Amino acid sequence: xxxxxxxxxxxxxxxxxxxxVVALLLWRRPALPARRLRVARAGLALMGTVAFAYTTPxxxxxxxxxxxxxxxxxVAARVWLAPVGEYLFFVLQTVIAGLWIYRVDFDPTPTxxxxxxxxxxxxxxxxLALGVxxxxxxxxxxxxxxxxxxxxxxxxxxxxxxxxxxxxxxxxRPRPWLVGVGVPTLYLxxxxxxxxxxxxxxxxxxxxxxxxxxxxPVEEAVFFLVTCTLVVYGLILFExxxxxxxxxxxxxxxxxRAGGRDADREAPPAPSVE
Length: 274
Fold this sequence. Notes:
Elements: H1 10-27, H2 34-65, E1 68-70, E2 78-79, E3 82-83, H3 84-104, H4 117-139, H5 146-172, H6 174-198, E4 201-203, E5 212-213, E6 216-217, H7 218-248, H8 262-266
Antiparallel strand pairs: 1-4, 2-3, 5-6
């Protein structure tokens, strides 16, 4: 008689692969000036709330369409059609990407040329075009493109909006967001591949292209890339917009590289992002 098979549950997946990363990033979180700390917390809260609200109906729609399903014994409870672990993932991924971009660090200070219209318009229109393609794939395209099309129609309009607001700024300072997006995306690709291999969830053959990258369905790779992009762009541009609004409101225009005001330099050390 062989050894009994141990099933990794969705919540167990979080305990093994997600929560330890959150804990590590919290432990190694950078110290921020007081004002920037407040903005960072507000940005993380906003991104987490938007991620939860915006992803929930999309996720449940695809579960209903059979785009993916879960292994026997891997789901402890469901709300609507999605497992509780799925809802946790919406928020925990946001926290991972958010804490990481602050670990990488970025300078949100506005400079001349940050609102140049051409790069903003070109990027936004290109992303909107991808969103239209995604909508067509969902509505009338071949069934095997359902998952990929749903990702494009769900994510591209939002990234287009982000690019329309601050695309010129992002283009002028690409290194922080490239690292900020790239590292958590690679990690999430790896653990997603492990989860699929262990049968925690399975991408359905009928609604996916069948194209894989080292065993990872290309749709999953695209999903984690665009979701990390949404979070990182959102947090960077949130700080950038706050500083611009402060300047219009008559606050001091002098900003240190950490994104705080002169008053923050004289304040006692602030607690770190939590």
